[in-house]
Design brief:
Radius of gyration: 17 Å
Largest sheet: 2 strands, parallel
Number of helices: 12
Strand order of the largest sheet: 1-2
Strand content: under 5%
C-alpha cells in the first residue's frame, strides 16, 4: 500500500476529480523515490500535495505544476489542471538516480534487475552511481516505477511482488514478469498490456 497513513481527506481534495490525481501523485512520488520524508501520515490536504510538488520540482520534474499549486486559493478547475500536469510530468520523467533505490527497496534487487533486463551486478553499479544508467534501461526502470505506482493504491509490498509473478488471462496466461523480460521497450504491445492491467486498479483504489 501507499507508504502514507491517511487519516482523512480534506477539502477540496475530497472531490473525486481531485482525489484521484492527488493519490496518483503520491503513489508516483513514492515509487520514484521523491516522496518527502514528512509526508507519511495525517490528513491528505492541499499543503501535503504542495510539499510533494515542491519535492518533484527540486528533482527537476513538474516545476510549472508546483508553481500553479502554490497559488494561495487556486480555483477548482485550475487545481485540477495543476494536479493533472503534475501527474503527467511525473509519469513522463525518468529519474533513475532516485528510482533504483526505491524499487529495489520494494521489489528486491534480483527482481528489479530481471524486470528491467540487466544483471544484478550492473544494477548495483547503476544504483550506486558508479556507472550512468543507459537511456533504454532508464526508460524501462521508469516504466516499472509507474506500474508500481498504480499498484500501490491496492497492494502492500508483498502483494506488489506477487502481482508481477502471477499469470494473468489479460496477458495470454503469462505473468507481468514474463512479459517484462529481456530487451523490451515501454511502447511494445506486451508492456502496454501490463500497464493497462495495472492502471485498471487505479479508479477503484480511489473510491
Amino acid at each position: 500500500m501507499l507508504d502514507i497513513q491517511i487519516a482523512s481527506v480534506r477539502a477540496p481534495l475530497d472531490e473525486p476529480e481531485l482525489l484521484t490525481p492527488s493519490l496518483e501523485a503520491l503513489a508516483l512520488a513514492q515509487a520514484m523515490g521523491i516522496l518527502p520524508g514528512d509526508v507519511r501520515g495525517g490528513d491528505l490536504d492541499l499543503p501535503t500535495i504542495r510539499r510533494v510538488a515542491r519535492a518533484a520540482g527540486r528533482a527537476g520534474v513538474g516545476a510549472a505544476a508546483a508553481a500553479r499549486l502554490a497559488a494561495e486559493e487556486p480555483a477548482r478547475d485550475e487545481l485540477r489542471h495543476a494536479l493533472d500536469a503534475l501527474v503527467e510530468a511525473l509519469r513522463g520523467s525518468p529519474l533513475p538516480e532516485r528510482e533504483w533505490a526505491s524499487l529495489v527497496d520494494l521489489l528486491e534487487p534480483d527482481r528489479v534487475a530481471r524486470l528491467v533486463g540487466v544483471s544484478t551486478s550492473s544494477l548495483r553499479r547503476y544504483a550506486s552511481g558508479a556507472r550512468r544508467t543507459p537511456d533504454e534501461v532508464a526508460a524501462r526502470l521508469h516504466f516499472l516505477a509507474t506500474v508500481v505506482a498504480d499498484l500501490l493504491g491496492t497492494y502492500n509490498a508483498f502483494g506488489v511482488r506477487r502481482w508481477f509473478e502471477r499469470p494473468r488471462s489479460a496477458l495470454g496466461g503469462r505473468s507481468p514478469a514474463d512479459v517484462l523480460a529481456g530487451d523490451w521497450d515501454p511502447e511494445d504491445e506486451g508492456p502496454l498490456a501490463v500497464r493497462a492491467l495495472a492502471r485498471s486498479l487505479v479508479g477503484s483504489s480511489a473510491t
